[in-house]
Fold each of these.
Amino acid sequence: MPSVTVLVHLGLVLAVFVLLLLASAAMVYAERKVAALIQQREGPNRVGPLGLLQPFADVIKLMFKEELRPGGADAVLFLLAPVISATAAFAAFAVVPFGGETTVFGLLEQPLKLQVADVNVAVLVVFAITSMSVYGIVLAGWSSNSKYSLLGGLRSASQMISYELPYGLALASVLVLANSLSLTTIVDAQAGYWFGFVPRWFVFLQPVGFLIFMIAGVAETNRAPFDFPEAEQELVAGYHTEYSSMAFAMFFLAEYINMVTVSAVATDLFLGGWHGPFLPASLGWIWFLIKTSALLFFYIWMRWTLPRYRYDQLMQFGWKFLLPLAVLNLLVTAAGVIFLGL
Amino acid sequence: MVSLNHYLALSAILFAIGTTGVFLRRNMITVLLSIEIMLNAANLMLVAFGRHFGAVDGQIIVFFVVTVAAAEAAVGLAIVIALFRLRESLDPDAFTSLKW
Amino acid sequence: MGFDLPLFYLFAAVAVAASLLVIGQRSPIYSVMLLIASFVALAGLYVLLDAPFVAVIQIIIYAGAILVLFLFVVMLLNAPKESGGPWQRLAAGPRRLGAALGAVFAVELVWALWRVAALREPVAPAGMLPAEAIEPVRSIGQVLYTDYAFAFEVTSLLILVAMVGAVVLAKRHV
């Protein structure tokens, strides 16, 4: 006889799943609308008011397309690759807290933490699961049995692995400041204000770390200006050239959810999570939503503004500039904590 | 309840599987994968004993074993690549020029 | 919670089945993917043993980096060949004999370990949660950088040597 707590937690899992799907749909719409406005045109405006139902039209179109598979493709791996991508994308969000404790307007006796699993090594779990998403891409590239796909897949995989290092070191700098690996504790360390009005966010103590984290995050999710592996102009479409219909949709779902996860983790680590003025802690998820949306807007803005990096420039930037900078940042942070007692 | 014996038995079975793989497979990459299975069996035993005695040393030694396994996999695969360039084959029996 | 034993058997079954398939597969790519499954099952076992840090390290380093390296090498070496070539096997007779001897070895090891009575205690003495499980990374860090500091420094040297060695060995001599 499952207790109320178990049911509430299952409800939370379901709610997070549905919210991620809706977020991905919202990202599809936002990307097209913002891209249009940056390019001085209107964007989707036919389906529903202001084109708001466009993502649903896209999904329905993709569902009705024919599911193709190249003749020489390895059937098992061809179908496994988008599954791995999508699974890793959803799973990474399981340990990300997106709000303070809430009693859902007094319906529950015990406050519910808005986090699917409060693990005390949450930061490492996010890192581990995003490092598993490399497999989806590299398997997609290889199993399609086509030269564009293979090249795109291998390039993408090496890019993701290379940028995991500055990503991890920027994370480590925050861990030195917060003294814990649990995302809830890190967010709670950012509550309060200095001098009464400057919030205690880690971005003010770690500006370089924040920049490194966001740059590495953009490279990890294969977004412009680091999207050479799926560059439409150079490689047809890179690792997902041979995919159509729902498998293609899964890859795009995975990409948008990875973006949401990176933005959510950056909000928790650097921007104070759900703490903000004027709202009680149980409504903190509104602030979380606002901050994450701001970061996602930056993601889209960068894609349609900056030109793409060439592959060797991309790798050089990651290994020869970003990685030493991240190491230096970690050393300076550690020195600051020891000598200044931050 | 899960006793230490359960973990040791599992570790022994995995080790035996890895050993069988090393001796039976004629493909150098699969041999390296079997070595990784053996290393993991040893890691499992270390963590189980560490938990049994309440010491964190088991986990630390596992940390070092994983690092050594990473280094060994990197160098091993580099050797496999160099050998493949020489003979276009991944079969260990293709490299018998030192046999007398 | 009574979930420990079923979870142990689940993870153990996945690990053993995946490992058996790894050594039996014809295609190295399937072997690598099955080994990933085995490693993830082992990470689950580490979580059951109250070692979440080791579990995450297993996934990040073993499943997320070492096996990606294996996958790259398999893909790059596979490219020129179409059939036969890289994955030959022994004839059926030696293969079956080898499998039988492997099974005998497994039974022998398990029997040797099962006889020791002292090992039949529960691996997690009931009710006693060690301090390590509550703050795993802190306790590991404190011991790692004091008692094992020398080994830590030597490991960094080892990784440097491995990096240089791998680049030198695999370099294409033009």
Amino acid sequence: MLKKSLKYYTLRYFAIAILGIIAVWAASFYWLIIDEVYDNIDDGLKDSKVRIQKEIDKNPEILLTSEYDLAQFKITALPPGNYNFATHIYNSEMYMPYEDDDEPVRILQNIFQYEGKPYQLEIYTSTVEEDELIENLLTSLVILYFALVVSLILINHFILKKAWRPFYGILNNLKNYKIGGKFQFEKSKTNIQEFDELEDELSAMIARNERIYGQQNQFIANASHELQTPLAIAGNKLELLLEDKEINESKAHKILEINQMLNRLKRLNKSLLTISKIENEQFKLVEKVNFNSLIKNALQDFESLIDFRKIEIELNENGNFEFEMNVDLAIILINNLLKNAIVHNSENGFLKIMISSDKISIQNPGEKPLNPQLIFERFYKNEQNENSTGLGLAIVKSIVKIYPKLAIDYRFDNGHIFELKA
Amino acid sequence: MKILIIEDEKELRNVMRDSLEKEHYLIESASDFHSALDKIISYEYDCILLDIMLPGGSGLEILSELKKHKKDEAVIIISAKDSIDDKVLGLEMGADDYLAKPFHLAELNARVKSAIRRKNQNGNHFISWKNINLSPENRTVKVNDNELILNRKEFDLLYYFITNPERLITKTSIAEYVWGDHAEQSDSLDFVYSQIKNLRKKLNEVQAEADIQAVYGVGYKLI
């Protein structure tokens, strides 16, 4: 569905409503005016009728006015008969030399008796041209309508925009909101009550969410901590058991299998602890970190693994990537990114690292693109790999989330490319 | 050599004791803050394994008590917390090393051995096994006075074996030791195998009397 801004949404309904109101208003206005005009004309006609009849009494020659001439009436002698002596007033048209056209007239028709003979009196008066009236009315109403709509647009634009300014402020504020981030909801000190309430409710809601989020993180941290000691005991007991002289080869293998499961648990637990430590902001100390030397150190750490897997390293330094952050987190960040690129690599594969002053890109071979929405999620695994915890990139994401100026992106272009941007 | 284990978890205390006794250490243990305090004041030890979270007080207080009594035992903090702040604080307060739970027994042995060795710098800078002499400070290895050139990982590997002679070290423990956090890889065990193969070859070339033996395919042993 096409989304409209609030301004145009209200404007559209205003425009439709005004159109309706003006139409109804125009009809009633027209009817009232016409009624009033005819009322006036009819009064004049009736007045003329009375004057003419009085004049006939004084001057019977008037009865001979058989054509509309100078006078605006004519009198026709009627044959004897039974006539309705009521007065009729009706609309008609009559040729007007001035306009050289038939023009609307209003005619009063009355049959009366003079000295026992019936006569028909017809008085006319020029009347309003209804179509012109309607035309003029319509024109002025169209002008009025557009004037109103234009005023509404202006009112909307200036007044509503001003009134809704706090709302757009709130909206922008919320766009920057990430849970668990260092977010402060800035109140706009608006004097509009509704927005003030909205801001209060929003900041209360955010505080509530942050608290729950914190509690959840704390729970993960506590649970992981509590698991460390039993994991240590179980693993160490198995190691002692393996050294037992009564253990034969097949038993040793079974014990090793259990031990390997335990190791998986330990790694999982350790990664969860790392994430909760990052998210509980336990890495506070911030200093300027040079990622170039960090990457070179990490590559040295991975050297034998890289040799073992025969991965070709290509390191391009086009600048120094420096960033103010916790150095331990920076190491975890780089190690996880590099490890990801080495682990998901093929024998005789490659690892390309490009460093510039505002970007580090790490590229490793890949067949098809990964889902960029999911790869940074916890426990997301693209392929079934029981040795992977599925937490490496989640750790990367939680580190990046702490620093608003840092961003991590994934794209696919002849391989998987992870880009760290400052 | 006397070692004091200060740890409130009985099972962990026992398993550490069992493993360290195989290395012929004399083991004593304390399960809470006050009994630990009594022991460190009354007796002398070569090494103290110290848990931070103890019933009755913090392991860090025991550290400062040790300092107060001018004791210079090698102290290794063993903590479930693995937090950098704790680690820094512990080391600043005079601990010699910091080992996070969970750990491998071979790792514990290596740490205990090097902590004690650093404390007793009585002229002997080498750790030796048969005709192999390894200097942790200089990161050099000599076999019959011939220098054995090893890369970083190979040196770490040999150090791990030489601090755990005749003990079975599991493949996963080796992978974690030489690889640290990166041991989760699917072919990490193949990697361990190839590293050990290289190390054996190099030891063989210089006529070392020691050898690294595969045990049931679950681990290796320096003999």
